[in-house]
UniProtKB/TrEMBL annotation:
<dbReference type="InterPro" id="IPR002125">
    <property type="entry name" value="CMP_dCMP_dom"/>
</dbReference>
<dbReference type="InterPro" id="IPR016193">
    <property type="entry name" value="Cytidine_deaminase-like"/>
</dbReference>
<dbReference type="Pfam" id="PF00383">
    <property type="entry name" value="dCMP_cyt_deam_1"/>
</dbReference>
<feature type="domain" description="CMP/dCMP-type deaminase">
    <location>
        <begin position="3"/>
        <end position="120"/>
    </location>
</feature>
<protein>
    <submittedName>
        <fullName>Nucleoside deaminase</fullName>
    </submittedName>
</protein>
Length: 141
């Protein structure tokens, strides 16, 4: 971790504080080019936008996929106040970002939150393989 990394990570933490001050969950992120120039930044707006997917990491991954060619995306670094959740991790991987630097780990975040209630949605499957594969088969070749 370089001093530049620490500087940019502190900016992500400032964005998290701004999200909290606005009444949203306290998460912030930014995307920097290879020279450290901030390309885009965002904060969590899950409550203010009434959108459960309005995580800053997801919003920046979507921005990068729209605005950067794959070679440019691969040279970027996302700085984020907390380790990305699985939804955001998937978007980051699909957008082709080169690196992620985070402040709080998922485990550290969990230690700062009350225990979650409920068990989440039950998932069932796989099922109907022969039917489900028809629209997918050959697409990824």
């Amino acid at each position: 971790m370089t001093r530049d990394d620490e500087h940019l990570l502190r900016r992500a933490i400032e964005l998290a504080a701004a999200a909290r001050a606005a009444g949203d969950p306290p998460f912030g992120s930014l995307l920097a080019g290879p020279d450290g120039t901030v390309l885009a930044e965002d904060r969590n707006t899950v409550l203010s936008d009434a959108d459960i997917t309005a995580h800053p990491e997801l919003k920046l991954a979507r921005w990068a996929a729209r605005e950067l060619d794959p070679a440019a995306a691969a040279t970027t670094t996302m700085y984020t106040s907390c380790q990305p959740c699985p939804m955001c991790t998937g978007a980051i991987e699909r957008s082709g970002l080169g690196r992620v630097v985070f402040a709080l780990s998922t485990e550290q975040l969990a230690s700062l939150k009350p225990e979650a209630s409920g068990t989440g949605a039950r998932q069932e499957g796989p099922a109907l393989f022969d039917e489900a594969r028809v629209p997918v088969e050959g697409y990824y070749r």
